Each structure stands twice: as structure tokens, then as C-alpha cells.
Amino acid sequence: MGPVPVCVLLSAALCVLSVVRSVSAEDEDEDYTWPQWRMPLLREKRTVRLTNPAFSAPAQAERHGTCGIECQQGLPDPSVSELERLLSYETVYENGTRTLTTIALQGLNEAEAWPRNAPGRTRQKREVYGVDTRFTIADKQYSTKYPFSTSVKVSTGCSGVLVSPKHVLTAAHCVHDGRDYLSGTQKLRVGVLKLRSRRRGKGRGRGGKGRKKKGQEEDTDNDNDNDIEGDRGEAEEGKGGKGGRRKGRKGRNRSRRSADSGPPSFRWTTVKQTHVPKGWFKGESQNVSSDYDYAILELKRSQKTRFMDLGIIPSVKKLPAGRIHFSGFDDDRPDQLVYRFCSVSEESNDLLYQYCDAKPGSSGSGIYIRLKEAGKKRWKRKIIGVFSGHQWVDVNGVQQDYNVAVRITPLKFAQICHWVHGDSGICKAT
Predict the structure, then answer these.
(1) Is residue 27 left, alpha or beta, with left meaning phi > 0 and alpha meaning psi from -120 to 50?
(2) Which of 76, 186, 373, 374 is a Cys-bridge partner for 55, taking CB atoms 3.0 to 4.6 Å apart?
(3) In this structure, are residues 183 and 175 in contact, taking their beta carbons and an 8 Å threshold?
(4) Which helix (H) or strand (E) holds 187?
(5) Domain-by-domain residue ranges, the chain?
(6) Domain 41-196+213-427 has CATH 2.40.10.10
(7) What is the pLDDT of residue 113?
């Protein structure tokens, strides 16, 4: 065989390099794409009426004795019957009555591919870690715009996130202490930040134009920024930084003609019914009650504010950025929406341990990340957990403090889907 021309060798090398780049791009794209999951089915077996709760529990401060990563790794895998017991739930209604619904799980073997995470190291930190990195979303044009507009205030002193026009996801301890419902739960309400209108009869009512509001609700997640950390820019704009002034005075003046010069106010809606998993109740679970620190509030009136979908991610730490985001109403900044983002330090099957700066009042906030939709190039934010708050965690017999969030797993996703839609079958894939 004679010598091979240099041009042929160069062409082959370029071809190989092109293939390598193509594969690398595909792998990187998969890292940034929402994974597809087969969901288990959750069916109702029986609903019985219980005695009315006393509504006598005080609001909780800090919780102690949470089973940490090392502790949970020593626990046996729950059986199907035990999972069905823990995922059965109570519903309390606005008239003070309550019921217990038992459930059955189907397709669990096909859906269960939840990874086991390795034990993490311990740390000794507080609710705010060193320099306070929280952003106050002071500009009303941003506090009432997606994604910040999905955050709501719960009348018991917590936060929550809209997951449908009529449903709010929050922490279970915001309505129940494990033994009884909180004293403020009987008249539970949810507040949504709204801009006040000067011309209430024109353009903002049901019969008015309302084009701006409609446009905000139909906003897409395909922001101008093309990376997973795009929320940082939104936070700067929300603070009233330069990014929020580039639109020019003319555009800003137009947008404020129908809005009050004061800050947004809460528009309160009564909660029609509240769902809490039995796994949260004392005596129902062994050392894992914190894994079930979530609840769904069904509102009496639908909201026109855009909501955020739920998502499932097997590992946050393995994401290219490894960051989570959430907004809530921290107690030390009354009636101010507070946003933060941070890296996840450790994760177990059901909990996320992180360094996010937070104060009481932010409990119940929706933890979200932003990834690409499968088969599409646009970004989409989804809620992957609920911020539970500051907890003292049992780590090898020693109490360590963490800020903890409850993860959305396939089973929890199916349960929440059942609460919201009445049928978990429509949520077989995400």
C-alpha cells in the first residue's frame, strides 16, 4: 500500500473530531435535560370519617432527632404495605371535619429506580451561613412575575408554591405538628402577591383588556439567558439593579399607569381542604417522619397567577451546576419576597441537605431547578422539593444542624398528582 495523502489523513482526523464533539454535545445536553420517569399508580381504597381535630397545636420552632443520612442507610427498605400505610393521608376540610383515605400502589417495581446515595459528611452551621446571600425581590414588577409569582404566603406563618391554579404545595409542619393540626389551620388562608390597580373598572377586571397580565401568565421559561444559572440575573433585576432599568423610562411609565405606586399587597384566599400524608404523623413512621414533611392545600378560588410544575431528579449534586433555588417570606423581612440559590452539600433518598441561607417563614417554599425539556431546546423550571427548614439531625448519635428540604420522589409525585388531579394515572411520565 502506497503513502496516504496528507489531505486524506487530515479529512479523517476532522471527521473523528466532529464525531467526538457531537457525542460530547449530546452527553452535555443529557446532563441539562429533565429525565423521563415511569410513575407508579396510586389508587384510593377506602375513605372513612374521623373525629374532628382539636386544632390546638402551637406553631413549631426547630425540630430535633431527625434521622440523618447515616441513620437512614441503616434502615431496612420499606415493604409495599408499609409504603401504602405511610402514603395514606388525612384530609381536613374548611368546616373542621376530617377523613382518612387509605391507598394502594400499582406498578411500583417498574417505576422504582431511585438511586441510593452515599453517606455525607457532617457540618456545624446555622440558618444563615456567614455572609447573608439572600436577595430581597423589592421591585414589584418582578415580585409579581414568574417564577417569583408562584411563591405564596400561608396564614400560619409559612410559605408555599402554586402547583396548579387551585393547589399550593407547602411543608406538613406548617399545618400539623405530628399530633394535631395547628390552631390557625381551621381558618387557613393563602396570600398571593398582586399589584394594586388604580383603574379597577378598566383593563384589570374580567371584562377589561388585561393584556399585560395575560401576557405574564403565558410567559415561557425560555429566557434570554442560556445557562442553568439564569435566575441570578432575575434576582439582580428584582433588587432594582441595572438589569431592571434597561427597558427605558418610557416603557416603565406605561407599565405603571394602572398600578399603584405602593408595594404589592397580598390577596388572600380561603383553603378549602388540606391533605397531609400519614407518614408525617407521630407513631406512623420510624425515624423518617421528616421525609413526609409536605402537604397540599386546595384553594377555594382559582388563581390567575401562573403556577410551576413538579419534577423529579435522581441527584442534584450530579447536575453540572448542582444548584437549587427557592423564594419565600422570611420572618426577618416582613411581607418581602426573599430569593436565594445555593449548592446542595449532601443528599439522601428523600432529603436534601444544603447551605441555603434562610429564616423561619421560608418553610414550605418550593425548591426548583431549571433544565431543558426532553426533545426541546427551551429551559423549564420545575419544583423538585419542599424547604422544610432548620433541623437538628441525628448523625451517629450526635445532633448536627442542617437546613433540610424534602425531595419529590416518584412515589410522592404520584401522591401529589392524585391530590391535585384526582388521578395519578395522568402523571405516568415527567
Answers:
(1) alpha
(2) 186
(3) no
(4) none
(5) 41-196+213-427
(6) yes
(7) 52
